[in-house]
Amino acid sequence: TKQQQQQQQQQQHRKKHRHHRKVNMSKDIKNNNGDGNDGPKKVDNMLRLPSNAELIEGAGKVTMDEPQMWGRGIVNDIKRTVGTHWVEEMTNFNQKTIAVTFLVFISVIAPTLTFGAVYGKATENNIGAIETIIATAWVGVVYSLIGGMPTCIVGSTGPVLAFSTVIYNMSKSLDVPFLTFNAWVSVWLFAYTLIAGFFDLTRYVRLATRFTDEIFALLIVSIFVMDAIGDPFSDVGLLHYMNPDHASHTELEEEDPNYAYISSGFLSVILGLGTTSLIFFFRGFRHSPFFCNDGIRTSIHDFSVTLSVVVWTLVRELIFEHVETESLSVPDEIEPTFACCDSSCNTFFPDDCEGQAEAAGTRSWLVDFGDLNGKNWIPIMAAAPAILAFVLCYLDNGITWHLINHKSHNLKHGEAYNYDLCLNGFFNFVNGLLGLPWLVATTVPCIIHLNALADKDRDGNFLEVQETRLTMFFSHLMVGLSLLVLNVLKLLPLPVLYGVFLFMGLSSLPNIQFWNRFLLFFQQPSKYAKNCYTEHMEKRRIHMYTILQIGFFALVFLVQNLKAIAIIFPLMTLLCIPARLYLLPYFFEGWELLLLDGEDESIEQWAEAKEQSVRRYEESKHLSSMEESSSDHDGGDSVDNSQDYHA
Question: What pTM was computed for the model?
Answer without folding.
Answer: 0.80
